[in-house]
Amino acid sequence: MTFIHHTTAAPAGEPGEPRHRLRARLREALATEMPDRVEAAGEGATAGGGPMLPNSRRRHIGREIVETALAAHSEAELLAGRALLDSATESVVVEQVLDEVFGLGRLQPLLDDPSVETIVVNRFDRVVVHYADGRRAPAAPVAESNDELTDLIRTLAARASSEERRFDRGSPALNLQLPGGERLFAVLGLTASGVTACTIRRHGYRTTTLAQLRRGGTLDGELEQFLRALVRARKNVLITGGTGAGKTTLLRALASEMDPFERIVTIEDAFELGLDLDPSLHADVTALQARQPNVEGEGAIDQAELVRWGLRMSPDRVIVGEIRGAEVIPMCNAMSQGNDGSMATLHASSSKIAFTRLASYAAQGPERLSLEATALLVASAVHFVVHLDRACDRTIRVIASIREVVDAEAGAVISNEVARRGPDRRAVLLPGALRTDTLDDLVAVGYTPDRCTRAGQERRP
């Protein structure tokens, strides 16, 4: 593991220190003047149905207020006989304050860096940054105190979510999508030291294609053609892998092969897929998000319920961002009852262990299915499992295994590995591994067999 130092601004300082005095003066000016300035710029028109001022315009107004306050603060410091901060430090404090009010606080510089993939905040002053090339580096504190970090996360929840997202002792976990598409997960008071901690993960692409993944080394041309055929032949696909393996990215890439006018309903715990954001790629998408209970403990809607509701919305395909509980049964029912071509992701350490994970989730659901019933349901619903892992260099995410589901027997799902990990950990299609009727389905939608040729292929049921 390589550690490098990520240069970010230092903490604002203790009360009475020059940086702290400047920061307090700028925040006071924004709190006092911002409401009237925004209203004068047209915010009051919202009462009559007009559009709200965009955040970029609000930040511009804020910068004008801050610059005026900075000049007044400098004059007051000189009159008090105090030394002024240098211009570079003043600029840092100004940007910090603007980020706190209009952006993501001291997280903003890290999120503005395109090479940053994951931000791990173990506590407000212990931060580690994971880069896309595999490097890891300690970073400067993202808040002055635990209370400030907690308040920042509550502010992000209020801004970013379409529904109320609590973050308090009664609801100490928060999962949401940030305005830039990053995914934040935070906990309150559950760590060993009782402090707030969070992790922010960024996806490399908001829209992705199989061709992009091939160019990035995730798969080769042969697998690209094979996966494209799976989508076009409307095979139900389960994508597995560990945390950060690229499951959501691959799901987006597979979705890019669907007809732009297919009716898609997506189900997520927190919005992340974003298939509804580009009508040119997906013109008919309804994106549904689970909802937490309100302060009275009512109004919760889980993914299992959303899958059932989604089936009433006339979908051609149903996509579950991540199976993690009771939604496994309604999802399998959707796959096996006419919504062919549906997809989901699942945390699993291998393509084979995915079936055990599905069975454990099904056993925990309200239906309490037996192993035999669960195996039969999964075997009738899932056609292929595509597993992601990291290549030998641990930086590139690759497809490591693909399994075709064959049948169920004695409470177990029977599957056949059709693509197996090669020397560089990338999967390679195995000659003759596909069942003949499956190969016929893929050929019918334009698949040209290469390694999985008909010549010498064993006739499979």
TrEMBL record:
Pfam families: T2SSE (PF00437). CDD domains: VirB11-like_ATPase. Residues 233-359 form the AAA+ ATPase domain. One of its GO terms (molecular function) is ATP hydrolysis activity. Belongs to the GSP E family. This is Flp pilus assembly CpaF family ATPase.
